[in-house]
Amino acid sequence: MSQITLPSGITLKYERRGAGDPLLLVMGLAGQLTDWPVEFVDELIDAGFEVVMFDNRDVGLSTMADWAPPSRRKSIISMIMRRPVKGVGYTVDDMADDAASLMDALGFESMDVVGMSMGGMISQALAIRHPNKVRSLCSVMSNTGDRKHGGISLKLIRLVGIPKPPNRDTAVDEGVRLWRHISGDHFDEAEARVRMAAAIERSWTPAGVMRQTAAIGGSPDRTAGLNAVTAPTLVIHGLKDLLVLPSGGTATAAAVPGSRLLVFPDMGHNLPASRTPEMVAAIRLNANRASVAQSS
User: Fold this and answer.
1) Going along 141-279, which residue ranges are E strands?
2) Which of 109, 200, 261, 262 is most buried when burial is the number of CB atoms within 10 A of its CB?
3) φ, ψ for residue 138, nearest 5 deg
4) What is the pLDDT of residues 104-145, one digit of tens each?
5) How far is CA 31 from CA 199, 241, 264, 287, 293, in A?
6) Of 286, 200, 296, 214, nearest to 21 (Cα)?
7) What's the pTM?
């Protein structure tokens, strides 16, 4: 792993693997670059990609902001009530600019881009704000930010409630409990427990996660911007996603002209190993569409 300081002063931890067409993986809320499933990354490399992963600001080993976020309760209630979160120090657009600057710093004029959850929002903003940098776009289990589609399921709120203030001693148990409810038909408790323990050992940044949560709620609707996206676009969503309801994927696909929507009936808010070959094949096909468009 390496790190780089961007012109903005933000320092990002990143990793490059493989050789081939450059592909940027953009992780979701609270996720670190190490949270990408190894098998998923390996299959992308086997499919002919050079994969770049990074810690977003405020998580992992990248720069931590210092502004005080709204409480977790206020941020989540604002999302449920479809109201913008106020008092945020940065938005998804700023995180998209981080990704664009990372590309520049690593010498990539453009890349294929895949983002999951909040990473899908960042990837959408990247395609809107820096269209020449995005060869192809894949938005996974995300939404357009329109506050009408892809919200949190009330069923999930009833099951887990509004999260309590984080406690390092209970974080693994609380994380496992959440992932049990959002992972659809594919949940391995032992694997989830090991993964979460490793993530907490690498970096424990509850305040950063709250700032990321607030940044999502304080970001504008991207629908109009997505209407102008010309990069070949693939939208992937699980029909059992309770964290970002499937309507978020449907709205994203409807917003981007010529996009393709791939849904899995057994998938929740995760990247199940059983669906990895299909997802990677679809990502490769979408990237190939970009190559054909560039050569014509």
Assistant:
1) 233-238, 260-264
2) 262
3) -130, 115
4) 999 999 999 999 999 999 999 999 999 999 999 999 999 999
5) 8, 17, 22, 24, 33
6) 286
7) 0.95
Is residue 238 classed as helix, strand or coil in its secondary structure?
Answer: strand
Cα(179)–Cα(28) distance, rounded to whole angstroms?
14
d(CA 188, CA 226): 35
What is the domain partition of the chain in residue ranges? 2-295
* Residue (of 141, 166, 146, 165) closest to 243 by Cα position: 141
DSSP state letters, 169-206: TTHHHHHHHHHHHHSTT---HHHHHHHHHHHHHH---H
* Contact between 178 and 270 (Cβ < 8 Å): no
Query: Mapping DSSP to helix (H, G, I), strand (E, B) and coil, where does residue 4 land?
Result: strand
Instruction: Give the dihedral sign, CA 38/40/41/47.
Output: positive
37 secondary structure, DSSP code: -
Which of 92, 34, 59 has its CA nearest to residue 226? 92
The two counts, helices (H) then strands (E), for the chain are: 11, 8
What CATH class has 2-295?
alpha beta
Q: How many CA atoms lie within 13 A of 26 on its CB side?
A: 34
What pLDDT, on the 0 to 100 scale, is given for residue 81? Answer: 67
Contact 171, 197 (CB under 8 A): no
The strand order across the sheet containing 134-140 reads 2-5, 11-18, 49-54, 21-26, 111-116, 134-140, 233-238, 260-264
